[in-house]
Amino acid sequence: VQLQASGGGLVQAGGSLRLSCAASGRTFVNYAMGWFRQAPGKEREFVAYIGWSGDDAYYADSVRGRFTVSRDNAKNMVYLQMNSLKPEDTAVYYCAADISSRCGSSLKDRYNYWGQGTQVTVSS
User: Fold this and answer.
1) Do residues 110 and 124 touch, judged by C-beta distance below 8 A?
2) 8 Å CB contact between 117 and 6
3) Which terminus of the chain has fewer Cβ atoms in its 10 Å neighbourhood, N or C?
4) The dihedral of CA 57, 63, 67, 71: what is its sign?
């Protein structure tokens, strides 16, 4: 599986960004997708995951109600809509594929493939 994340940038606090992740190499509908982020000096942390059908999504407490994960299986794409951004959301954001499950997980060790990351910077 190859993953390509895009859509990061610089935004003011309260603003919005939409991250995209393009997947290729395996049948996309067969596996769950996750988003993680890593701020400087911190460990990579879970943000959200979405199951194979798109009906099952789960969020970290820190982003619930502000971020929305979605997927388009026809296009092999997964998205992360980020609203009401805060300076503490500043990080490199990674999409990841869990090819062993169609349901998803918040555990980064469950994910087999990772995209290259896209930088999100939120200014105060």
Assistant:
1) no
2) no
3) C
4) negative
**Rounded CA separation 83/108 (Å):** 23
Cα–Cα dist 98/108, whole Å: 9
Q: d(Cα 38, Cα 120) in Å, to the nearest integer?
A: 10
DSSP code string of 54-92: SS-EEE-TTTBTTEEEEEETTTTEEEEEE-S--GGG-EE
**In the chain, how long is the greatest CA-to-CA distance?**
41
Per-residue model confidence as pLDDT tens for the chain (124 residues): 999 999 999 999 999 999 999 999 878 788 999 999 999 999 999 999 999 998 899 999 999 999 999 999 999 999 999 999 999 999 999 999 999 988 999 999 999 999 999 999 999 9
CA neighbor of 85 nearest in space, from 19, 13, 35: 13
In this predicted structure, what is the pLDDT of residue 75? 95
Q: Which residues pair with 71 in a beta bridge?
A: 78
Residue 78: name the closest of 17, 11, 18 by CA: 18
